[in-house]
Amino acid sequence: MAKSGLGQDPQSTAAATVLKRAVELDSESRYPQALVCYQEGIDLLLQVLKGTKDNTKRCNLREKISKYMDRAENIKEHLEQEKEEAKETPRISLRFCCESKHLRS
C-alpha cells in the first residue's frame, strides 16, 4: 500500500510520504499515530484527486483512498474496542490495597 505511483507534484509527494509513515507505524503496532498519519494522507490524496483531470488517474486515486480509508477505519475500531475493554476491566483501588495491608499488621 505504501507505494503510491503518484505524480511528482508537492501534494502527491507529501501524501506519499505521510502514507508511507502511516504504514510504518501500523506495522509497528503504533496505531494511534498510524491513524493520524492515515487521516492526513487521505486528506492530501483527496486534494490531489480534486486537481486531477485524467480519468484513469482519478480512478487509481479513488482506489488508493478507499484502501487507506478501510485500514484507517479498522484501526479506529480497534482503538475504540481497546478503550471499551479498558473501561470494563475492574481496577483495584490503591487505597483499598493499602487499607487491607494495615488490617493484616
Order of helices and strands: HHHH
- Terminal Cα separation, in Å? 61 Å
Q: From the 3D coordinates, which CATH architecture would you assign?
A: Up-down Bundle
CATH topology: Methane Monooxygenase Hydroxylase, Chain G, domain 1
Helical residue percent band:
over 70%
The strand count comes to: 0
Described by strand count, sense and barrel closure, the largest sheet is: none
Please, how many domains?
1
Q: Would you tell me the overall average pLDDT? A: 86
Tell me, what's the shape? elongated
Question: CATH superfamily, please?
Answer: Phosphotransferase system, lactose/cellobiose-type IIA subunit
What does the model show?
The protein is an all-alpha fold and 105 residues long. It has a single domain (9-82), classed as Phosphotransferase system, lactose/cellobiose-type IIA subunit (Methane Monooxygenase Hydroxylase, Chain G, domain 1, Up-down Bundle), CATH 1.20.58.80. Helices cover 79% and strands 0% of the residues. The chain has helices at 10-27, 31-50, 55-88, 94-104. InterPro entries: Intracell_Sig-Traffick_Protein (IPR051866), MIT_dom (IPR007330), MIT_dom_sf (IPR036181), MITD1_N (IPR045331).
